[in-house]
Specification:
The protein has six helices and nine strands; from the N terminus they run ββααβααββαββαββ. By secondary structure, the protein is of the alpha+beta class.
């Protein structure tokens, strides 16, 4: 409805039509109309939430359906054969681990643990994170080349959550490498930010897909689900930081995380 000042008022309108019966209303149809003002912005927000929930539900169903189908198939095979097949059991264990990973990442997104913010050194968080990835890096025969600021890079952060971000980004870089190669990691101060940059020598990401990075269930990996990267964006946003992505086909991809410095 347009108001006298020219602005519009969004409303919900309910109309009840009464058909003429006998001599009632002199043979004319009569209706009642009820107009209720509504908060259009709130309605749009709710619609957006419903859309995201629908996308997440569809993605979850798709991601979990595949391993469940495999599990059901192997159970049927094992029921028809009295022998225990170690190969089947290993595949089933892998698929169960995949479901657990999806569930765990969804729980972090939906109901994260209370944040434990304190002043910590980004370099120390990186070093602790890399200690957990040594085995995977060794198996892939990937070489990590670092260039790190000679002085501490203090940030006000939840150390465990930033560690999650670093682990996810480094793992993505390792998995992007189809062959042996280098991953370049730089940590430094720039302006008012502590910066960590992670560059791989993988195949890169097509330009038309760049806008989808960080979206639910978007991934360029054959066995990925996109939730890990989505979680990274959420954590960095909670720290008032940013993630930037640069990629060239055939040359690799660079993820750059900027987190506000906390100088005493």
């Amino acid at each position: 409805m347009r108001k006298k000042d020219g602005s519009y008022l969004w409303t919900e309108m309910n109309i009840q039509l009464y058909e003429p019966v006998g001599q009632a209303f002199n043979g004319e149809a009569v209706f009642t109309m009820r107009i209720i003002p509504i908060d259009r912005d709130e309605e749009l927000l709710q619609n957006d939430k419903l859309t995201v929930i629908g996308q997440l539900a569809a993605g979850i169903a798709h991601e979990i359906r595949n391993p469940l189908t495999s599990l059901k198939g192997f159970i049927q095979l094992m029921k028809s054969d009295s022998k225990i097949h170690e190969h089947y059991l290993k595949i089933m264990e892998t698929e169960i681990n995949e479901i657990e990973t999806i569930s765990r990442e969804l729980m972090v997104l939906a109901k994260p643990n209370p944040a434990d913010f304190k002043i910590c050194n980004l370099i120390s968080i990186f070093e602790n994170s890399m200690a957990l990835l040594e085995g995977e890096i060794f198996q892939k025969r990937v070489k990590i080349i670092t260039k790190i600021e000679h002085r501490p890079v203090p940030i006000y952060a939840d150390e465990q959550r930033i560690k999650q971000v670093i682990i996810n980004l480094v793992k993505n870089a390792v998995e992007a490498m189809e062959q042996q190669g280098n991953i370049y990691i730089y940590i430094f101060r720039k302006d008012q930010f502590g910066v960590i940059s992670i560059k791989d020598e993988g195949k890169g990401i097509p330009e038309e897909l760049m806008g989808k990075i960080g979206k639910p269930f978007f991934t360029t990996k054959n066995n990925g689900n996109g939730l890990g990267l989505m979680m990274c964006y959420k954590i960095v946003e909670e720290h008032n930081g940013t993630i930037e992505v640069e990629s060239k086909l055939g040359e690799g991809t660079t993820f750059t995380v900027r987190l506000p410095l906390k100088i005493r």
